[in-house]
Design goal:
Four copies of one chain form a homotetramer. Chain A has 289 residues and is an alpha/beta fold. In chain A, 37% of the residues lie in helices and 20% in strands.
Chain lengths: 289, 289, 289, 289
């Protein structure tokens, strides 16, 4: 039998879901996975080794979903010490691939200079769609924990109607909430109506928030300003990436109840979220070959 | 204008939902509500007064959903001191009504001897149906908190197909879980199939548990014995009233993961659960008149 | 190898679904099926023989879902000549079983006198549940054919909340209709509410019919009398067995639009309906052994 | 009181839904509707007059959803004589608007030359979304009429995952069919999976058709060629606009069961379809002002 040529991947930085991704991807024949920067993690993935050899050179470097917050170091909340991006890149063979999410331009340049290829998770639409599910379930878990009422019979407002909003609307509707969607595009409102939701143009947000128990924002611009917050008695769950959709100062002043919910997939369902990442990497590799 | 004749109700013992029930019922014209035995509760219900007058005589005494655990005192986790049932009964006018859940025979005798009427919540089918919703949502919240996977795509086994089981099956199915129902009656299995579930006769429980991520038990007899638990890798959420459905000793020995989840409505959704109780009392009173 | 002892069944009378039932049941090892009284049927079932031998004696006689209309002859719309019940019974061996639906007392006596056993389909709850599905789909097909509007967005009233009503409510809701359930029992209304329907006590039928596009009746007593019909502009689909739920004279006088829809499973989905009957017979036989 | 300035619209050609659209739009204050080319229609719309004055000049000309089949005459199946497009255009005031669906380039030129504006329904995304519902329900009605089985439990294949395919998949799933979606884009397959469907890449169509009872095609290119049709035993409902998705000759040769289902909204639900057109015209007019 011919030997299967072996590839190596180093998972560097990120939260628990990256360890589950590592474990999952190591099931792939011919791929050997290592991890680095997870000293604080309680979980030890099966069939994945901690990287100890400083001179190691891998075919693939796997950075987290938000690969860096400061542009200098890998985002690595479970690492005991900061990991400079340049140090991480030095782990890769010439011609190797660096996977990561939201890779900034400056980092892309470094990758290119180092003779490596970059693959950004967020360019993969399937991942975005699949990630919407743990995000919506995370919002559901927050609503259940924070409110003393059942989701069944509750009144929910969802802003926007992109992937995450659509999934959140479906999730709450499925449990018997009365869901209103406020969006800007009339075609989105037509779809929302077809999906069984009430609809309201986003320009009426100020009145749409009235009487709602739960408001789920997916719009990444500050649409919940003082005038809107004044009418908002329900719990706001803000799923939008920075800067989010809520005027922080006004919310504080008015005593609005807001949960800023970022990186929900990694918190709610790290195993599922890890498997989604593993599948995405696998798909990207299949397409490359 | 004629004066509306006024009735008085004392809410005595129970958890938070009884206070919400008191608040809700006090909206009823001609009804004045009091509470007693809630010294440890942080919440103060609107329009409901704490009972201070020892010689007070009410038309209605409202005991909690499980009115007593020991047969001697009112179940009153938020009270600073035990409340003997006889003391509680002395608060009611001759001919008045005592509401409570699962009222034991001995207590029924005392009520009769005191010249009072008894009304048991659990004889009211609507309450049982409505309570199934916060119970199922509570099971969902537990599953989301305990497991690192999404409900979407998870494999769930529900035992039995009564009110709670049916509601739980629907709740998890609605979120995209693959739900199997294991029940004894073939007609229940026919309904479960119609409701979109896979089905398995309960006699095959030992094999039905295999590969399931979540097992929700609604059967109040020990069907999860050692032989079944050996095949069970998933999280068991036991919703059955005492004695529950899981062999405690065997579960401990085998390291099975079990959550005994009692009184979920009061924990998950005390406001909704309180409103359900208030609506039940109102219905019983309407039927009496 | 031991010879499998062979049983014989004669399917006598009924509509197309009985032929599909015969075809399905003939797949059972050790069972040989014959048919009689289907001269007008275009379809010839596979592996089932037409009965020609007058002296034949079978183990099982399979009569249709409504076994007789007049108490004297087998209900046999596809037969060229009437089949007296006594003639049909003479086809069975002593100790054999007669299957049929709604077997009248007088026929039961004849069966007993002949030394045979009787098995009524309608005593089998699974069959009733499973038959509710082709019935509900039949009602849907009628509504789609009769009305120039989409089911999505239509306003539907369902009376009762038994098997057929529940299934019809679910079917129309699933397609985006707004469904109201009018029933007598409060527990039924509680379930209907939980199933996402609006609810109305049946005593308010007169007002509940207003504004509805489609009314589906499952109550087998004349609740649609003149006073109710006066308010009814929508299409009434009457699924109730005789005498049905609609005052025929009043409906004619007022020009109400009514479809009396009986035996829908056999009309809408004879194959599925036949398989349900075959499965029921198989289950009854399994329980007997 | 000031007089509301009055606009006039002539509905010319098309099927029944155009008359319902005329009736609906005539409810709009300040708009007077006329119709022309419906001599064969049994239905007389309320508040809409038949056009008799040859010298009439309208503000708006409302042509049907498929405005012309031959490029020369208005598509007018209910007219007793052909209506040349030039004759129709001569009914409009200079500066007036011509509404129509799929207006060919040559006709657009004529409209422009005549000093008129053109508005194509198909550029309005909401109409396309809303039309998907009567289309999907039409496909459902066809399946129910053609097949002797229930939709519940049937096996359905849907090709593509655009508006119509998505709506059809949801419609059949909602009734308990097992739906597989075969599409080309992986992101479409991800959505279909999230919507509860099984998925298959369209490149595997030949095997995906196996065992399916119903196949719904929405892809407007001949993907059901001889090799695919050989494996297809189920009923094909072709919803794709010309040339459709089925090799006509091969289907005939192989005896495949195909329903070419065009203009379903007008056939299944002319009232709803007419209201959708009326709403679209209203929206276009609102945006113009």
């Amino acid at each position: 039998m011919t030997k299967v040529s072996e590839y190596t991947a180093v998972f560097c930085g990120g939260d628990m879901r990256m360890l589950y991704a590592a474990e999952k991807i190591s099931e792939r024949p011919g791929l050997r996975a290592y991890y680095s920067g997870f000293e604080k993690a309680a979980f030890v993935p099966k069939n994945v080794k901690m990287l100890t050899d400083a001179d190691f050179k891998a075919d693939y470097l796997i950075l987290p979903m938000v690969c860096t917050l400061d542009g200098e170091t890998v985002s690595a909340p479970l690492s005991e010490k900061p990991i400079p991006i340049s140090e991480a890149l030095s782990l890769v063979k010439s011609g190797g691939i660096v996977f990561g999410g939201n890779i900034p331009k400056a980092v892309l340049s470094k990758i290119e200079e180092a003779g490596l290829l970059a693959a950004d998770y967020y360019k993969n639409e399937e991942l975005l769609i699949e990630n919407a599910i743990p995000t919506a379930e995370g919002a559901l878990a927050i609503a259940m924990e924070e409110l003393p009422i059942t989701i069944f019979g509750s009144k929910v407002l969802v802003t926007g109607y992109g992937r995450v909003a659509k999934t959140a609307a479906k999730t709450f509707s499925a449990l018997g909430a009365s869901v209103t969607v406020a969006a800007r595009k009339y075609s989105d409102l037509a779809w929302a109506g077809f999906d069984g939701c009430k609809t309201e143009h986003i320009s009426n947000l100020s009145s749409a928030v009235k009487g709602k128990d739960i408001i789920i924002n997916s719009v990444p611009s500050v649409i919940f300003d003082k005038s809107v917050l004044k009418n908002t008695k329900g719990l706001i769950i803000d799923l939008a990436s920075k800067p989010g959709g809520v005027d922080f100062e006004a919310a504080k002043e008015l005593g609005s109840r807001v949960v800023w919910a970022l990186s929900l997939p990694g918190k709610t369902a790290p195993v599922t979220a890890g498997y989604i990442i593993a599948r995405t990497i696998t798909n990207i590799l299949s397409e490359q070959v």
